Amino acid sequence: MDTGRFTGFEVTLEKPGIAWIEFNEPEKLNGMNSRKKRDLIETLTQAQMDNAVRVLVFIGTGRGFCAGDDLRAYSLEQPNDQALMPPIPPGHDTPTGTYNGLRHISQALNLSIRKLDKLCIAAINGVAIQTGLSLALACDFKIAADTARLGSATLRFGLLPDEGGHYLLIQHLGLAGTMDFLMRKRIVTAAEALALGMINQVVPADALREEAATLARELAEGPQVAMRLMKRSIYQAAELSFEQACEDIAARTAISDHHSDAQAGITAFREKRPPLFNDWLKAYD
């Protein structure tokens, strides 16, 4: 995948296959615009297709992880030499434009994260509001600095959580919790978010990057084929019947049981030593 600086973020790749996507517009609290979303979608597509990438980590600089959409930017969109993709109209100027902008840019970003076979970590360094909250919730693991704050609060502007945030909140909070969270325009601390079940872990702010890196290394060293199949099965099981979920994981197990990682795991167990997975990825290290 391409590394370097793009529209509002920077991509670096560290061993063993950890891609860091770092939002780098702290003066804007890392707010989003259509160019940034399109570049992120392209970056995620590259990550999915690149065997050198095993795990992705999203993190911000400054006081914000991502404080939502930069509404001013939508009327001031200009070409950007660092962009992966050329500019297109951001939409939202008409009802149809809003529909198209959401379906093909804004919602497409969170769908791209959720569709990734590779595991994603949101390292929430600061405020994560609206778009930022949805992006974080779309990730598989959420670690927050103890100074972070999370919320949707779209009703404060008479707006809706139009990028799929309502769905993602229901998955984390349930129906009643989501109704309370959105209708009462709540913005919560990291500790409150942990108690609600929105995130996995809260750490001191100065330890966030290292904690995220430690988790990323653990995930990257695990059996990648089985983990990617497991990720898909978990999300499928959340929406399927029990019988359908059993059918789904049976089909995936027919792949994982006969992969070299499974043989490595069984051999290591018999020899009473840690397994050495991912021999098939050594050429990409």
Strand arrangement within the widest β-sheet reads 1-2-3-4-6-8-11
Overall CATH class of the largest domain = Alpha Beta
For the report, how would you describe the main beta sheet?
A: 7 strands, mixed
> What pattern of helices and strands is seen along the backbone?
EEEHEEHEEHEEHEHEHHHH
Radius of gyration, in Å, reads 19 Å
Given as residue ranges, the uncertain stretches (5+ residues, pLDDT < 50) are none
Helix content: 40-55%
Mean pLDDT: 93
Task: Estimate what percentage of residues fall within beta strands.
Answer: 15-25%
Describe this structure in words.
It is a single chain. Helices cover 44% and strands 16% of the residues. With 285 residues, it is α/β, with parallel strands linked by helices. It has two domains: 4-220, 2-enoyl-CoA Hydratase, Chain A, domain 1 (Alpha-Beta Complex), CATH 3.90.226.10; 224-284, Lyase 2-enoyl-coa Hydratase, Chain  A, domain 2. The strands form two sheets. Strands 1-2-3-4-6-8-11 form a seven-stranded mixed beta sheet, with helices on both faces. The longest helix has 21 residues, at 95-115. The radius of gyration is 19 Å and the shape is globular. The mean pLDDT is 93.
